[in-house]
Amino acid sequence: MDGPAEIFSFLTSGSRAGRRGALVTITGLSGPSPRSLGAHMAVLDDGRTAGTLSSGCVEAAISAEALVAIAEKRSRPLRFGTGSPFIDVRLPCGGGMDVLISVDPPGDVLRDAADLLFARSPAALSMDVVGNLSVAASTGTEETGWREDRFTVRHDPKLRILVLGQGAEALAMMELANAFGADAELHSPDRTLFGAIDERGFQYTKLLSISEPAKLSADRWTAIAFLFHDHDWEIALLPSALGTSSFWIGAMGSERTHAARLTALSEQGISKAGLARIAGPIGLIPASRDPATLALSALAEIVQEFGRLTRRPDSR
Question: Does the N-terminal or the C-terminal CB of the chain have fewer CB atoms within 10 Å?
Answer without folding.
Answer: N
